[in-house]
Structure formats: C-alpha cells, structure tokens
Amino acid sequence: MNRTTKELRFISVLTVAATVTACGGVVDTETTGSELAPEAKIRLQLAKAPDNGLQAINVVVTDVSLRIGSGGWTTIASNKTIDLLQPSEFLATLPPATYTEVRLKIASASVKVNGQTFVATVPSGEVKLKGTFQLVSGFETRVSLKYTKGVATKQNNGTYRISPVLRLVSTTKVALPQSTSDAGTIAADAGSVQPDAGTIVDAGSAPSVVQTPAGFVRVAAGSCVVGPQNGELGSTSSEQQQRHTALYGSLLVKETEVTQGEYLAVAENPSAMRNCGSNCPVDSVSWNQAVDYANRLAQNEGLMPCYNSVRSPISGCTGYRLPTDDEWECLARAGTTTTFYTGNITQPYANEGVDPALDIAAWNKVNARTSYVSAYYDSIMNAQLGSQPVKGKQANAFGLYDMLGNVREWTETSFLASGAQDLSGTFRRVRGGGYADDAVDCRAAHNNYYGEPTMRTMDVGFRLVRSVL
Q: What is the Cα–Cα distance from 364 to 383, expressed in whole angstroms?
C-alpha cells in the first residue's frame, strides 16, 4: 500500500520536505515494443484551495522542477500565474526515469477581496516533495495535490501572507495513445491505476483491454469531490475537514456486494445472517478474509493476486482487490453531490420516520425488517433487522447496488479515527451504511467507522474491484 506522510509548506529559507513511500515494486522503464511512445509525461494537478471569503489568490510560480536521483533539476514549468482558488496543473514530457523530488518556487502574489486587489507577502524559498516518482515510457504519471487549509492569512496590519499547505492525494499512471501524432492526447478510458491499492501498470508491454465479466460494471477513470456538502444534515467537522477532490482510475466494479453464495463457492460462509439466503450479502467477514477471498478468486481465474502472503498489496496485479477509501466514495456517489445518490437527507434518525431519498436506495434501520429468523433485534424499532437479497433497491448511475445500505463494506485504506492515515495498518476504514443504521450513517460521506483487519461484525461485508484499461 502507498502509505504516506506528506506535507508541503511555502516558508522562508527553511525547506519542509515530505516523505513518501511509493507503492511497492520497481517499474521497469525499458520498453519491449516500438508501439509505445518513447517519452514519458508527468502531470501535476492542484485542487482549488478553500476560499475563506476571498475571491482570488493569484500567485506567480517562477519554477516547477523535478530531480533525478541526487542530480540536477529539470524544469517543467516557469513563470506561471495561477489562481489558487481554481484547479491548476503542470504538464511536461520528460525522459523515462526515477525522479526523487518535486520542487516549486513561488514569488509575488496578490489577493482579491470584495472586488479590491491587494499585494500579498510571500516568504521566499523553495518547497520540495521528496518521494519516488517513476516516469515510464508510454505512460503519463499524474500527481494529485490538495490544499489542507486556507493559504492566505490576514495579518494584524491588514496585509495578507501567502503560505499554502499541500498534501499528496494520489499518484496514478495512464497509458498514452500507442499511435498518435499528438503526444499530449490521453487515450479514452485509459487505465489509470490507484497506487493506494498497490497496483501499477506494467511498462514491459502494451497493456490489453480487459473484458467486463458478468456481475461487474466498467467505470471509466474520473474524479469526484469526497466529503459532505457544506451544511449537510448529520455531517461532522471531521468529515468537512477531509473534503477534497479525488482521482480514480478505470475500474471493473462488482455491481453488488459479494453474496453468501459467491463466497461459499470459494470459502466457508462466515455469515451470521445465513437465514437470509445465498443471494444476500456475506457478513461477519473480516478484512483479512475479504482479501483472502479476492486472492483465491483471482487465482481461480488465472489472474495475478493483489495481496501477498502477509496481505500487503502486490504491484502490477491483475486480480481483485478492495476499493480504496476515495474510490469507494466516488463509486457510491456516481457523479452526484447530494447526501445519497437519490437525493438529500431529510430524516437523519429512524425514530423520526422514513427518509424518502434513502428508502429508494438502501436497506437501513427503517425498512430492513426480516421475514426470516434474524440474529439482530433492534429495541428502538422493536423489530428483527437483517440483511436483504441484493439488488432489492435502486442502483446508482454506475449500475451499483446497495452502496449505501444492506451491509457496510471494507475498504483497502488504513485510517485512524481522527481521519489521519494510519501508517501501522492497524485499522481499516469501513464505508456505507447497513441494515441496522440510521440514515445519518448511510450518507456517502460518512467515514468514521473503522475496524482491525481481524474484526468480524454481522453488518460488515465487502465488494471487489479490478484496475483495468
């Protein structure tokens, strides 16, 4: 897994460097076919900063450069004026190599407030992001950055000080067109791969397009805003602080949660809700069991597993894996920005009544009464609640069912309860609501449920994805 601690600060003289541990494995930069473009590309993408009441923060970036090993610097952009309140990016063609640092230099800046423009002070110096950025022949490496807080601070004398704080969000690789006169064009539905899932496209040969198997849907590469809307009913300050734009690569996504019948075909069924039937989601499955299932399924289909013997991600895998936290929310939203993909929340708690938007999309505490003998009794609802057969509610625009209810779902990503990434891997984030949850816990942005990899509860299951072209 691409476990990272990274932070960039614009400061005077002193450089604050980030440490990045890139996803495991080294990508071979030697091409084996003339069909691949001889050059590599890098695209640095900056999400827009929080406005904090400002209309514009215009900054002159005098130099953006990359470093090969401990050698010199290669400039990819210079003398660019960007508005930090708008998304921006820097694109360059470079020789295939392993780059170890990104450096940005910033000079003059101005701030626009209430229609007036003020010159802002900028601490001179340089900002470096240390890491391993593997540029591969025939691929574009996309490095996505976000601002973790406001970048302009008003001083006591009424002036503004510019001091952005950036964090690495993700690094993806996208195949360049194999035959084109425009080296800057990106192939349609190109196979960008999320490093958080421990996967990199093998540069040894041109990757082939994978057919969509039964029970899966193909989701093209894209991006979404992760986190709640401003003022979303039931949202927390922690969720609001973690709001950011996420990128995801092309994926094959299981249209339903893995069912008990599907799980039983590979391993013993651990479910507490067995009376629900083989077409109900598997439950009481740990994170460890979920990734073991993914590996066995991959091996049964002749695919390269995505996890090794200690359940760490394997680079270049072609098999099944759990979605990352960002991938999961983007898949759940399916292009929407509302609380649920069917609308906004109006009844956050079950004792207040049915939430009309959620009722269309998800099995939850209000509507998940069982017709079978269940292992769970809810005293508030005075009823037995339990999982339900998959595809019983409306799918989202990607064709995915039960993303917000039925059972919760394990994700690939390790997080602490504070929302910070857990570098020890002690906790894994669980997403989506379940049959025993209030509407407030079924929100797409709800993200404060965690568990150790060995945790098993009767309302947690999983679904699988594959990174593909």
A: 13
Using DSSP's 3-state secondary structure scheme, residue 97 falls into: strand
In whole angstroms, give the CA distance from residue 461 to residue 282: 6
Measure CA of the first residue to CA of the last residue in the chain; give whole Å.
21
Q: Going by DSSP bridges, is the β-strand pair 97-113/126-135 parallel, antiparallel, or unpaired?
A: antiparallel
Contact 98, 134 (CB under 8 A): yes
d(CA 84, CA 51): 9
Q: List all residues 6 or more positions away from 174 whose beta carbon is below 8 Å from its beta carbon.
A: 139, 140, 142, 186, 187, 190, 191, 192, 221, 249
CA dist., res. 125 & res. 127, Å (int): 7
List the chain domain ranges. Answer: 4-201, 208-469
| Interacting residues of 258 by C-beta distance below 8 A, sequence separation 6+ | 281, 282, 290, 293, 461, 462, 463, 464
Looking at residue 414, what is its pLDDT? Answer: 82
> How far is 208 from 191, CA to CA, in rounded Å?
10
Q: Which pair of tokens denotes residue 192?
A: 């960008």
Inform me whether the pLDDT recorded for 38 exceeds 80: no
Are residues 44 and 166 in contact, defined by beta-carbon separation less than 8 angstroms?
no
Helix (H) or strand (E) holding 238, with range, is helix 237-241
**171 Cβ partners below 8 Å, 6+ apart?**
2, 22, 133, 141, 142, 143, 144, 195
Identify residue 203 by its one-letter amino acid code: A
Angle (nearest 5°) at CA 241 between 237 and 245: 135
Are 339 and 233 contacting, i.e. CB atoms less than 8 angstroms apart? yes
Q: What is the mean pLDDT of residues 247-261?
A: 95
- Quick one: pLDDT at residue 289? 97
Identify whether the C-beta of residue 200 lies closer than 8 Å to the C-beta of residue 173.
Answer: yes
Question: pTM for the whole thing?
Answer: 0.59
Residue 34 structure tokens: 């003339």
Going through 84-138 in order, the beta strands assigned E by DSSP cover 88-94, 97-113, 116-121, 126-135
Which H or E element spans position 356? helix 356-361
**Right CATH number for 208-469 from 2.160.20.80, 3.40.50.720, 3.90.1580.10, 1.10.3720.10?**
3.90.1580.10
**Cα of 343 vs its chain's centroid, Å:** 22
For residue 420, give the amino acid letter: A
More confident of the two residues 23 and 177: 177
Q: What is the pLDDT of residues 344-385, one digit of tens each?
A: 999 999 988 899 999 999 999 999 999 898 778 888 888 999
